[in-house]
Amino acid sequence: MMQIICEARQPERIDRYLSNLRIDGLHSRSCLEKLFTDKKILVNGKAVKKSFQVQNNDVIEYEVPIIEPSQDLKPEDIPLDIVYEDEFLAVINKPAGMVVHPGAGVYSGTLANALVHKYGTGLSSAGEYQRPGIVHRLDKDTSGLLLIARQDKIHYLLSEQFQKREVSKKYLAITTGFPENPEGEIKTFIDRNPQNRKKMAIAKEGRQAISIYKVLEYYEYFALLEIDLKTGRTHQIRVHLEHINCPVLGDSLYNNQKRTMNSVPIEYRKRIKFLLTSHLRRQALHAWKLGFIHPITGERLEFSVEMPSDMKKAIDYIKQLF
Fold first, then answer.
1. Do the Cβ atoms of 242 and 254 come closer than 8 Å?
2. pLDDT band at 70 (very low <50, low <70, confident <90, very high)
3. HSE on the CB side for 113, CA within 13 Å?
């Protein structure tokens, strides 16, 4: 058991107090949650809930479980497109089709498997065995920039930037149709779709989601948009663009093939079907810009990666068609 003498000017929730100390092993919500559930956090000798109000001079004891590599997470020699790396963090350009971490029946071929092979134990644990170093995620069929933490404290500090909306995340999307206005803000609540648990949906309550879009190019029945993501909800861009009636091209979950073909005159439909089956076999969504403050140097870092070849080919094909 590790021991801390509380130094609080006024009563404070113990989970918040411990989180603010930024102690290795107590950096993440999931880690703290597990410790409280397992009654591994004591105050003055008694196990407490996370809502307990800790006071000055209280004696806090905690036990951090030893992080063992997951038996399911095996190192795999999968090439990584590393945009930036140092001893504290890395920025990876994830290809479309790669799952970020194991889950839902997928146990290999993930970014996590590749990271373990590349960095070994030089990744943050974040209290989650199958997500070493992973600070945020991209959908399997979304390409682009991901931020990786190589130390627990760095993971905490980067997560804090995400929570405070200090991280800049900009995406490129080819859409079926285009918004009514050339630029604007989409601000809604998003929650799980009650009719289809694989999907998210606009809801009256849930988690607030904010996306700011700008049309970069119009292609008759399609468009290229830049989306500035202010929050990071599951499927946020895909749900928001479908909500304003210009869903992401190739998105089988929110914009099926029939809907896309019906958006163009009948004489073009076979060609659009060819596009979706031959050139673009995933949602045309790419995380192309990422900006954040380096937790150690304090320097603002900005990265960008160009649109991948399948999206470029799709745009060229649409331009030639119309």
1. yes
2. very low
3. 17
Query: What Å distances lie between residue 233 and 206, 208, 237, 239, CA to CA?
Result: 10, 8, 9, 10
What domains sit in the chain, N to C, each tagged with a CATH number?
Answer: 2-62 (3.10.290.10), 82-164 (3.30.2350.10), 169-288+302-321 (3.30.2350.10)
> Which pTM was predicted?
0.80
HSE-CB for 148 with a 13 A CA cutoff: 30
Quick check: is 24 catalytic? no
CB-based burial label for 9 (10 Å; 0-12, 13-18, 19+): exposed
**How many CA within 13 A on the CB side of residue 24?**
9
Terminal Cα distance for the chain, rounded = 68
Residue 182 confidence (pLDDT) above 90: yes
For residues 92 and 84, give the distance between their C-alpha atoms in angstroms, rounded to a whole number.
7
Q: Please state, in angstroms and rounded to a whole number, the distance separating the CA atoms of residues 116 and 126.
A: 14
Per DSSP, which regions of the chain are E strands? Answer: 2-5, 12-13, 41-43, 46-47, 53-54, 59-62, 82-85, 89-94, 143-149, 168-176, 183-192, 200-203, 207-219, 222-229, 285-293, 300-304
Residue 177 contacts residue 255 (beta carbons within 8 Å): no
CA distance 234 to 179: 21
Q: What pLDDT is attached to residue 129?
A: 65
Helix (H, G, I), strand (E, B) or coil at 321: helix
Which one is catalytic: 139, 152, 191, 310?
139
- DSSP class of 197: T
Per-residue b or e along 151-177, where b marks 16 or more CB atoms closer than 10 Å to that residue's CB: bbbbbbbbbbbbeeeebbbbbbbbbbb
